[in-house]
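Appendix B. Chain record.
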Amino acid sequence: MEIEKNHIDDIFRHRLHDAEVPPPAFVWTNVERALHQRKRRRFLIWLFAFGMVGAGLWALLYRPVTQVPATAASEQRPENRQESAAVAQQPDHTNSPKTEPASRDALGLIEQTGSGNRAAKKAELQRGKVEALTASASSLVEPLPDKEPENETISPPSGQDTYLKGALEGFSPLINAATEPLIFKREFNLPQAKIFIRKKKDPKYCYDFAQNPNVWMLDAYAGPSFNKRTLKATDPAFNDYAQMRRATEQSDWSYNAGLRGSLLLGRHFLLRTGLHYEQRTEVFEYADPDYVKYVVVIINQPGEPTIIDTIGVEYGENYVKTYNRYGMLDVPLEIGGELRRGRFGMSVNAGMSFNVLFWKRGTVLSPEGHPTPFTPGAKGATEVFRPRTGWSAGASAQLFFHLQPTVRVFAEPYYRQILKPVSLGNQPVEQRYRNWGIKMGVTKILD
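Structure tokens predicted for this chain:
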């Protein structure tokens, strides 16, 4: 008896021809949850960015108010009060003219003109003292003759030693001793010039650009970045495919960093170049709601026909999630202008950037509707993006603050537009990028 030949492909075609199994309801719930699940990390990045911009504006506009203590109009300096008291306490003798009114007049003048010129007040006070001392000395001692006799001295009258000691106490510059011959010298303590102590100047925080109008500056910065991606179908027939790409790819966090050299010319004009690196991240999520898995057992025994039996069916979604990363290294060429006021300042810059490195890694949905890797060198990878992104145009505005004469910190919001699409020309969807972010860093002035 001849054994019938069984072909396994014919058996599968016969058993599974026109087989349709509707997926259960829980499959659609899982698919919807997987497609609409979003990350909220971008909110924290935006909050951090706006906080830094607000802090920079507050530092630029804040000015500390220096309070100068007010001096009362009637307040006298301590040395003036002591001098006034000394004049007022001079002894008043019956044979001497009244000296108190002169001192009081001087003190009254001081009080009335307390808010006037300090030098004028002190001059009036000293004038009153000199008049009082002159009047007291002339009343106690007889005037000397025009021509003093030889070998003759003036002595006080007998019985007046004690009187002179009490009356002339406090006038040691005029009288050596009461018991010795009186030799009066017309010498008085004239007012001395006040020694002013200059306060220590505040530390110098700002660089002297007037002395060095042309200097080199070096910047190092980093900060968060954001991007706006545009997907446009090259042909109306690919509009559905472009919509599928938008549904499966979502923007995630990004950042920027770089080194930059600047030449300041004429105190206000800038020429800048350096290296600027920017990396963006996108989340690729794909779920196939029509995915069905059949569990089949094939029994093949010698001398017996091959038996194929379906022992189970699994329903679910073909779920794929990857993080697509794009890194760009550019060389910027910018010009700008800078204005300063005290320790604060602002500069505005604009120019072009040329891309020297563009690396990419991730997965994309193919026009047939299957997840396909686009990482260069990966197994089964397809070419989607160009090797270089080309030229970009951008502008920025920098707010800076001097910590030291040659060191300052800055925050610099910027915007950059990539002029050409980053995708290849043979792709059904054209992919473009616009980027913006904040550069936060330190500037070193090379003196």
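Further analysis of this model is presented in Appendix C.
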